[in-house]
Amino acid sequence: MNLKAKFAFWFALFVAIILSLTFAVIYVQSDNYRTEEFFGRLRQKALTTKRYFIEVREIDSVLLRIIDRNSLTTLPQEQVLIFDEANRLKYSNVDEASILFDFAFLDQVRRQQEVLQTDESTKRQQIGLLVANGPETYVVQASAYDQYGFQKMSNLRNILMVTWLLGLGIALFLAYLYVRNIVGRPLGNLTENIAAISGDDLKARLEVPEDQDELTTLARNFNELLERLERAFDAQRSFVQFASHELRTPLANMLSETENTLSKTRSPEVYQKILHSLREEQSRLIEMANGLLLLSHYEQAELAEPTPLVRVDEVLYNTIDEVRVLLPDARVLVDFAVVPDDQNELLVPGSESLLRTAFRNLIENACRYAENHTVRILIQPTATRLLIRFENTGTTLSEAEMRLLFTPFFRGTNTQGKRGFGLGLVIAQRILRLHKATLEYQSPNANLNCFLVAFANADWKRQRPELR
After folding, report:
1. How far apart are the first and last CA of the chain?
2. Alpha carbon distance 42, 144 (integer Å)
3. Can you tell me whether residue 461 is helix, strand or coil?
4. pLDDT tens digit string along 371-410?
5. What are the structural domains of the chain?
6. pTM of this prediction?
7. Coil, strand, or helix at residue 95?
8. I need a labelling partner for 129 at 20 to 30 A (CA). Which of 6, 148, 239, 326 fits?
9. pLDDT band at 206, cuts 50/70/90?
10. Buried b vs exposed e over 125-151: b needs ≥16 C-beta within 10 Å?
11. Coil, helix or strand for 215?
């Protein structure tokens, strides 16, 4: 069953349930009204017969029977009986051979004064009234079969059944029209447009329908997905281009030197110099391979549970000591934007070794491309976030470079003459993402570069109330 048929089926099912409940209530209430109305007529018949028989002395039993049988208000299969205190039959509007009564019913009437009953087998309704005439009491029993009432209920039942079937048919027809025009046609167009989009044309976008909440949301979300896919494909193509370029340069150098060396016999000193050059290129290739392995590892890594808490300022100071060994000319200045009142604001859950790797890459990147090899680190703790700013002065990035900044092997125009592979920032970003932190580039002015790291302290503090 396709989606349109399912929509139509469920719509018709809901309509059928609503009609069934509505018609059931109508039928039950109508039957209750018929029962009450017929009991009212029986009560009126019993009281009228009692008044003629007991209060009007000029009318005897024979005359009263004639009046009852010829009255316009006579009910189908009507029977009116009057009993005295000894349960002796004092009056009957029918022949004695057809009289139907029950002594238990008479006793019940004497106890309750009024009793209403329906015989489920014959559908006859009867009422018993206890009336008084001076010191004497009588039981008046009136019963009859509501032939016209049951006939009306039968007609109502037939009308409701036909109406139910007709309503269900109309509901199916309307559901079909609704699904075809409101859902089926736009959804079909949307499906065709999606099928027409291929991997070679990710710039195509769906037409967003207006005033159709679900389909509009679906089209917008799909367009957003296409945008993310386009960025991912662009990043992949850029990765391949940058990787090819980075790999081609050392390989070409190695091949060129090797062919040049093999072209003629050289002295041992020249051979040794060439081997040193080849070793340097091989080291670059190994360094690049190690970077790619680290990148792949951090993409799939997960923090151990429970994650220990580390102090960010201590991790930074340890990282700075490592950087000073690798880059003796680097100058790293650390300062607090606001001195924290609570030392817990400097805590984050994570791995100290991974955070050192991320911070080292950020510090080395800032020192290498700074005009004076100086980086300023500003720590700004708050109740909800912990911000760390890595600032240096130098050439800022363009809008196009900012979009590719965290793409593997991408290097900006300010990196010319600088050794590197364009993997450090990507590794730092993925390590920080593993710690539920964000990394973004900012350029407050034309000569200032800033990488902002933001840890969301509020998330882990909710899970560890003892540190609040």
Report:
1. 56
2. 8
3. helix
4. 788 899 999 888 788 899 999 888 888 777 777 777 666 6
5. 3-151 (3.30.450.20), 213-298 (1.10.287.130), 307-467 (3.30.565.10)
6. 0.47
7. coil
8. 148
9. low
10. bbbbbbbeeeeeebbbbbbbbbeebee
11. helix
Cβ pair 415, 369 in contact under 8 A? yes
The pLDDT, as a whole number, for residue 46 is 85
Contact 144, 79 (CB under 8 A): yes
Task: Tell me the three state secondary structure of residue 409.
Answer: coil
Q: 420: closest CA among 357, 356, 361, 370?
A: 361
What are 120-176's pLDDT values in tens digits? 888 889 999 988 877 888 898 888 898 889 999 999 999 999 999 998 888 888 887
Pairing of strands 331-336, 374-381: parallel
How far is the C-alpha of 322 from the C-alpha of 315, rounded, in Å? 11
Contact 140, 49 (CB under 8 A): yes
Edge to edge, the sheet with strand 448-456 lists: 331-336, 374-381, 385-393, 448-456, 437-445
Q: How many residues comprise the chain?
A: 468
Distance CA 360, CA 322 (A): 8
Among residues of the chain, what percentage have pLDDT more than 90?
Answer: 12
Residues 6+ apart with CB under 8 A from 282: 250, 254
